[in-house]
Specification:
By secondary structure, this protein is of the alpha/beta class. The protein has nine helices and six strands.
Length: 246
């Protein structure tokens, strides 16, 4: 089945990048566990030579995610932070990034503790204010880093408006789309399923200095609830039990 860009999200999720296997006709892409591939001649292969650089299973995943996001290409990484670190390799010393001030703690840690000492510079602003983002862009700005909704305060960022401003100034735009996933939001044409309850100040945002956290509205007692796909009655019952013991 073909999967044109106008196909529904369910169709693309099932079929994009996953044609029937040529050897057996299997309709589900197998998990290829090989590390090396036989070549027909020295330097001549069928698209794969070592699984660290490419693997048929990973290729299927990348093609599927690209189709869901409305993109031409996709790259899969072992973790979100691995993807973020790779993106930041596009920049060099003295390059400037404008980032939303309410963002995942691991991203903040990467920017401030790893990349800033290496010469990259960062400015954090309220992403819900397009004018604030625009005002923070300088001649050395190469990247604008967005989350929408933000983590953990769920601020909504006008991705299209900020992208227009950033591109006019010659800056790239990166959107961490973790919360919405391509099902609800596709930044290029402008994930999780379990519920999560956590204390950002002690968990996801613990690496951000307390004064910086509080200034951006992340109080020490803030509790973040990310609702998944469990039965509503079960979630309410769990919350009732937890609150009754507090």
């Amino acid at each position: 089945m073909s999967t044109p860009s106008e196909a529904g999200v369910s169709t693309r999720a099932i079929h994009a990048g996953q044609p029937p296997g040529p050897a057996t006709g299997a309709v589900v892409t197998p998990i290829y566990q090989t590390s090396t591939y036989a070549q027909t001649a020295v330097g001549k292969h069928k698209g794969y030579e070592y699984s660290r650089t490419a693997n048929p299973t990973r290729t299927a995943l990348e093609a599927c995610i690209a189709a869901l996001e409305g993109g031409a290409h996709g790259l899969a990484f072992a973790s979100g932070m691995a993807a973020e670190s790779t993106v930041m390799q596009l920049l060099g010393p003295e390059d400037h990034t404008v980032a939303v001030d309410d963002l995942y703690g691991g991203t903040y840690r990467l920017f401030k503790r790893v990349l800033e000492p290496m010469g990259l510079t960062f400015t954090f602003v309220d992403g819900a204010r397009t004018d604030a983002v625009e005002a923070a862009i300088t001649e050395s700005t190469r990247l604008v880093w967005l989350e929408s909704p933000t983590n953990p305060l769920l601020k909504i960022v006008d991705i299209a408006a900020i992208a227009k401003v950033a591109h006019a100034r010659g800056a790239m735009v990166v959107v961490d789309n973790t919360f919405m996933s391509p099902y609800f939001q596709r930044p290029l044409s402008l994930g999780g399923v379990e519920s999560l309850i956590e204390l950002p100040a002690a968990m996801t945002h613990a690496s951000i200095p307390a004064d910086v956290r509080r200034a951006s509205g992340v109080a020490d007692g803030l509790v973040r609830i990310s609702v998944g796909i469990e039965d509503v009655a079960d979630l309410i019952a769990d919350l009732d039990r937890a609150l009754s013991k507090s």
